[in-house]
Input
Amino acid sequence: MPRTLAPGQRSRIHVLDVDTGEDRIVHESSEVLYEAPNWALDGAALILNGDGHLFRLDVEGGRPLRIDLGDLAPLNNDHVLDPDGVHIYVSAEDGHIHRAPLAGGGGVQITQDDGLLHFLHGVSPDGATLLYTGVQRTADGSWMPPNLFALPASGGESVQLTDDEFPDDGPEHSPDGTWIYFNSERARTALGQAQLFRMRPDGAGAEQLTDDERVNWFPHLSPDGERLAHISFPPGTEGHPADLPVILRLSAADGSGQRDLVHLDGGQGTINVNSWAPDSRRLAYVDYPTGG
Output
């Protein structure tokens, strides 16, 4: 079921200038829990999900306008624009990844019925390859640790990129296609302690980028490839839950020079997908405050 707001809670869609610190609320809602903004390629609008649907929001303000995707199953908060600027890839509650026109219309299922739940996170710069997190249930109904996969954007067989006992998640290509950035618990000292990594597109040559007491998720490189944004959860957090005091952080592409951008109430839904504007200066995010 799509997430909903708690009594007295709001979802606020922000656009943050990471150079000047200007933080502008583009839209605020006490009715719809909006999540996971990414930018239209012309920089004029944000694409978000809410109530299981996809929405388009002008960055200058106004109300989010629903994109009609026909009878597609309700969406979760994993969606990535096709580099063609005409289509979008989305993850749905049927466990599959679909491709649909941004202008609206029915979607086409991309993933196969291979026993996995498929959570989309990235598309290669040339539009040829999707990256997703795959999760499988065991015979007793428990979840196995998620692994990372690559899939032809046109459909077909997936290639497994990671295979270990530690959860891996949030894979995205670098803008030049030479790296895949992701978060993983493979270096953890406590359950749930994810850090940021990058590896080559074939899964080799993994490098650790962060190493601190906090729980770091969803690395997003700016389109110019120079800056890395991620969300940092409090120590001891397991997974990437909602409604926690979290920090958006910025660093160089190799993880060095890390600094805090903003402290907020959020987590799940704040920046699950790449939220950088085409200008590599502005970052969109969602927070979920309660009270006044």
Observations:
- The longest strand covers residues 244-252.
- Residues 11-287 form a domain with the Neuraminidase fold (CATH 2.120.10.30).
- The mean pLDDT is 95.
- The chain has one domain: 11-287.
